Amino acid sequence: MKLNRLRLGRLSIYLEPRDLWVGLYIAPTALYVCPLPLLVLKWDRREARRG
User: Fold this and answer.
1) At residue 49, does pLDDT exceed 90?
2) Where does 1-51 show beta strands of DSSP type E?
3) Which CA distances in Å does 41 have to 17, 23, 50?
4) Which positions ≥6 away from 28 have C-beta within 8 Å?
5) 10-22: per-residue pLDDT in tens?
6) To which H or E segment does residue 50 belong?
7) The whole model's pTM is what?
C-alpha cells in the first residue's frame, strides 16, 4: 500500500499502518513522533535533498 507523504523541508507527515504506537523515537538520522496511532511526524536530522 502506497501512502502519500506531505514533505516540508526536513519535516515529513504521513500515515503508516505499521506504526500502532504513540510516542517518540530517536534514530541516528531522524526523529519520529507519533502523536496518534498511524500518524507519523518525521524530522530528518540531515538537510533535505533537492532533486
Assistant:
1) no
2) 6-8, 11-15, 23-26, 30-36, 39-44
3) 14, 11, 20
4) 45
5) 999 999 888 788 9
6) none
7) 0.76
Show the cell assigned to 24: 517518540
Q: What is the pLDDT of residue 1?
A: 47
CB proximity list for 21: less than 8 A, separation 6 or greater:
34, 37
Burial of 31 (0-12, 13-18, 19+ CB in 10 A): middle
Q: What is the β-pairing status of strands 30-36 and 11-15?
A: unpaired
Of 12, 8, 10, 14, nearest to 48 by C-alpha is 10
